[in-house]
Amino acid sequence: MLVQNYVPALMFLGIATVIGLVLLALGFTLGRGSKDAEKLSQYECGFEAFDDSRMKFDVRYYLVAILFIIFDLEIAFLFPWAISLDAIGLFGLVAMGIFLLVLVVGFIYEWKKGALEWD
């Protein structure tokens, strides 16, 4: 009787595995393109891989990536708020307005400081 509770999950895993394998097989059989040295070369974090780990490199890529993650996670807070807006009422609306105001002020600050420039 306990196994019957897991049947839907096992069916889902089985179907997902079959679909994944079929798509991989289709990609290998129908895929075109030559695998030249440029395609097979190492690519890491937005710039070419380098030999010396102590070599200086530009950190702007990481700065933009971190800013994207921060704003992406902050926007993710809007989804639960939108779903529960009826329950939280005016207090929730004002709280989200303040949250969005802080977000916009932070974005303007980063923009003015030049953190989003890629020169």
Topology at a glance:
Layout (H helix, E strand, L loop, with lengths): L1 H29 L6 H4 L2 E2 L2 E2 L11 H17 L1 H6 L1 H29 L6
Antiparallel strand pairs: 1-2
Question: Would you kindly provide a written description of the structure presented here, covering whatever features stand out?
Answer:
The structure is a single chain. The protein has 119 residues and is mostly helical. Helices cover 71% and strands 3% of the residues. It is built from five helices and two strands, in the order ααββααα. It has helices at residues 2-30, 37-40, 60-76, 78-83, 85-113; strands at residues 43-44, 47-48. A two-stranded antiparallel sheet has the order 1-2. The chain starts with a helix and ends in a 6-residue tail after the last helix. The mean pLDDT is 82.
**End-to-end C-alpha gap:** 64 Å
Give the count of helical stretches: 5
Largest sheet: 2 strands, antiparallel
Please give the order of strands in the largest beta sheet.
1-2
- Enumerate the spans where pLDDT stays under 50 for 5 or more consecutive residues: none
